Amino acid sequence: MNPPAQVLPAFGDVLAAAARIAPHAHATPVLRSRAIDALVGTSIAFKAEHLQRAGAFKFRGACNAVWSMTDDQAARGVVTHSSGNHGAALALAARTRGIACHVVVPEGAVKSKLAAIEAYGATLHHCAATIAAREAACAQLQQDTGAMLVHPYTDARVIAGQGTAALELMNQCDGALDAVIVPVGGGGLASGTALAVAAMLPNARVFLAEPAGAAETAASLAQGRRVTDFVPDTICDGLRGTLGEPNFELLRAHAVETLVVDDADTVEAMRLLWSRMKQVVEPSSATVLAALLRHRERFAGLRVGAILSGGNVDLDDIASLFAKARA
């Protein structure tokens, strides 16, 4: 039986998730760059979730969900839909428990991410590139297999697990942060971060970096209702998901602020992270630095924690990506 889709996690769930995933997830490092600090005019602690298992923060939430299940639930396996990172994370988490994993993937997903999902042992199921098609395929798989749905971002267990990245970041910085900025797509990392920061650093601000071609979170928070009628148009494939209902409620309750960035600025920020810090991050990760550079005046003199969400890039497309942004 699946947990209620709209259950809102609390900070205690984040703490429980941290203990639950500790035997399986990496405690990723915090990286710093004096050169980038000088460019932005602030002190930035980069949380290196691109060095997490499966190459993204997504492993935290997937691992928490998988290891929260009873033995009877786990025996039936898990199912999800994903354009890449969550699918790979859930496949790996399922492998740590020795259970089956089914991943519904949309047309046009990054080939290297699909290869990673398969390499971790999941069964791929292809569908049209719409949220409706993904959800319909997942529902059919649940019916056929009895597997438990682990939604990429609305599942309370996933949100709590994602919040452990910010929890770890704040502990590594001894609480010396004035702001935390994370990318936002479906809202799992964003809402988990909001929960953790509100509990541990109530005076710190939470900012979200969102691509202009999929800026429904900014629109939703501005209008006070979820905006779901949009067609994403961004290179940030990890941020094309529709903001979830529980995620929206948590973000609205914690008064976060969204900063919208162009793809060209994101690619230049990605180039900067590669060249100055020698860190292979994907475009979705680079949105946080793009936002800091675009809004320097907002962060001047502050101590900022920035979560680099993932590093799963298609290396065959990198040269053309950089060249296109420069053009």
Automatic annotation (TrEMBL):
Pfam families: PALP (PF00291). The keyword Transport does not apply. Keywords: Lyase, Pyridoxal phosphate. Its cofactor is pyridoxal 5'-phosphate. GO terms for biological process: D-serine biosynthetic process. The keyword Nucleotide-binding does not apply. Residues 22-310 form the Tryptophan synthase beta chain-like PALP domain. GO terms for molecular function: ATP binding; L-serine ammonia-lyase activity; magnesium ion binding; pyridoxal phosphate binding; serine racemase activity; threonine racemase activity. Belongs to the serine/threonine dehydratase family. This is Pyridoxal-phosphate dependent enzyme. It comes from Noviluteimonas gilva.
